[in-house]
Structures are given as structure tokens and as C-alpha cells.
Design brief:
alpha+beta; 28% helix; 4 helices; Aminopeptidase; globular; single chain; two-stranded antiparallel sheet; 8-stranded mixed sheet
């Protein structure tokens, strides 16, 4: 297994998007979707603090977090990455998209790139995702990407696993 941190932060792309490290200049665009331990940022300072914690998790080998960048506009439209389990050969895949970009294929592209990276670069044996039972968009995406529901969890959450 090849765990983070890497000599060079991985940049992966397809014809629609680029997954890259989040830059300080991106923080303002990400306030609406900046979360850490289930808490959402309310200010630019809180978003920057959260990104610092996420970077520390990466440097400790516990996660990898990419910004999703539109190839045409070069604007950041969301984030995705692995947030838990890497040390066990597993990865909890998470993602979030700015609302104005939903339904346009960005997250499908991002998740496919992240899944390929997890399996073929990191060497993960298991990939899973947790979402709210009310998040029908995320559930449709997971099913489309061959995830199967494996558990109902507390707090109205559900767990899916890549099959």
C-alpha cells in the first residue's frame, strides 16, 4: 500500500475535471461546503482552520482531500477524498459539491477518479461511504457507481460499500 503523504500531492484529471490540492486562494469559494468532524465553517477563518486540520490529517497519512476543479472555467466546484481507514487498507470516500454545480456530472467524474486512485495507487481493499438517508442525490450517485447499502446507522445515516 502507498499511503499519504506523497512526494508530490496527487493531481488526477479527466476531460471534465481536475482533482488537486486545495490552495489558500480556494478557501473563500469553499466556505459553504467546508466541514470538519460534522461542523460547517461559517467564516473564512473557520474554513482556513478546517483546511489546516485536513492538511494535517493528510501529512499524518490518514486522509487525502482534493478540490474538484472545472476544466473549462478553472473554478473549484467541490471537494472529495478519503477520510478514514487508510491505515487498515480501507477508505471512507466522501464528497460535497457547491449547489449550483449539482446534476452536471462533476461528482460522478470526481468519484470515479478517486475510486481508481484508491484502488490502483493506494491499494485499498475496501471503499465505503456514509450519507444521510435523506440525501437522495448521494444515494443515487453511490448506486450508479456500484456501491451497495450495507447498514443503517445512527442519526439517520446509511453506509454503502463499493462492490
Amino acid at each position: 500500500m502507498k499511503l499519504p503523504p506523497y512526494d508530490n500531492y496527487p493531481i488526477i484529471a479527466d476531460d471534465k475535471i481536475i482533482l488537486r490540492e486545495i490552495a489558500t486562494s480556494d478557501h473563500g469559494d469553499l466556505i459553504e461546503i467546508s466541514f470538519y468532524d460534522g461542523v460547517q465553517a461559517q467564516t473564512l477563518e473557520e474554513a482556513a482552520t478546517m483546511q489546516s486540520k485536513i492538511k494535517n490529517d493528510y501529512n499524518d497519512g490518514n486522509s487525502i482531500h482534493w478540490g474538484i476543479v472545472d476544466n473549462v472555467t478553472n473554478k473549484i466546484v467541490g471537494t472529495c477524498g478519503y477520510y478514514r481507514g487508510l491505515d487498515k487498507g480501507e477508505g471512507e470516500l466522501g464528497c460535497i459539491l457547491l449547489s449550483q454545480y449539482k446534476g452536471k456530472g462533476y461528482m460522478t467524474s470526481a468519484m470515479l477518479l478517486a475510486i481508481d486512485f484508491g484502488l490502483n495507487t493506494i491499494g485499498l481493499k475496501r471503499i465505503w461511504a456514509i450519507t444521510s438517508q435523506d440525501n437522495t442525490g448521494a444515494i443515487k450517485l453511490l448506486k450508479r457507481l456500484n456501491f451497495t447499502k450495507i447498514a443503517d446507522l445512527e442519526y439517520n445515516e446509511v453506509e454503502y460499500e463499493l462492490q
